[in-house]
Every structure is written in C-alpha cells, then in structure tokens.
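Incident review: delayed structure delivery

Summary: a single-chain prediction request sat in the queue longer than the usual turnaround. Root cause was a stuck worker, restarted by the on-call engineer. No data loss occurred. The affected request and its eventual output are reproduced below so the record is complete for anyone auditing the incident later.

Affected input:
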Amino acid sequence: MTGSLRDLQDVVETYPEQVWPVQLQQALQGPVHQANLARAAGLAEVPAALRDPLIAEYRGAVRVGLSQVPAAAKGTKQPVGRCLLACLRDRQDDVLRFVFDLDVWPTNNQSERDLRPFKTQQKISGRLTSAATTARRLQIASYLSTARKHGVSAMHALRLAFRGAPWMPPAATAPT
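Output delivered after worker restart:
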C-alpha cells in the first residue's frame, strides 16, 4: 500500500483544486493508524466498529475519484490517477487486507529496505549477477531478514543453517 500512498501524492499534486485525492489519502491513512493501534493492543484485526466506517470512507473517496477522472478511450493513455483508482476499487480486499489480518503489514517499507542492496548493485554494475546466483542471494537475504524480524540474530540463523537445521519462524496460530 505504500506505493498507493506515494502514487496518491502525485494525484494530489496533479489535481490540486480537487478534494477527493486528499480525502482518499486520509481514507488510507486512517486504517493504517487503526491497524497500528490494534496491533499494539494485541488484537488480531481492527475492530469492526472502527474498521467499517473507514472502509466506507475509502470506498466513497474512490467512487468520487472515478467520477472526477473519467476513463480515456480504449487504446489511449489513461488520465493521471485513473488506473490507480481502478486498482483501488478492483483490489480493495488486497489493499485493505491489513485491517482484517494484523499479521499483514500495510506498507512494504521493510521489503523495500531488504531489496535496496540488490538494486544498488544493479545500478552500479548495470545488471545483477546470473539469475540463479541472484535467486540464491535473495533467498539468503529473505531468510536472514525474516529471522531478524523474529528477534533471531543473523549470525545465529546462519550457524543453524550451516549445521543443517535452519531456523524456522513459529507456526502461525489461528485467532480464537
């Protein structure tokens, strides 16, 4: 969803005279805030009494945006924001999944940070190494990142992996 908020900032700047882009930004920021509060309270999801009005606000802002940014003729470039609005409408369940399942993070900030070293290498050298080598490096980086997110040091996780008994995250528990 981070990309959506960034893209919305572009839409806000493209349509400064319109209210809906800012309303849509706020309609996405509200659920993120409530998800953070619910997660801090140890809940499995944002309570419906808080969540449902925020989702209604989100849907309304998307509908208004779609009415203000009409689709271009088929085969021509869509106006700024139109594809984003259609995606936010059509993929609402994916965009807002984090309010129903607090194990899902609303942003991909950590994932972007995890990929940064690989993107930097690609920019410096003009390419990544072979596909197989890149896949192995990403697998190792993902393993270490997941371990660190669970409070396991990278060195400990590597030692376990080299001993043939790699660290595994705890099994997910179903909410009661």
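Verification: Residues 8 and 53 are 21 Å apart (CA to CA).
Action items: add queue-age alerting; document worker restart procedure.
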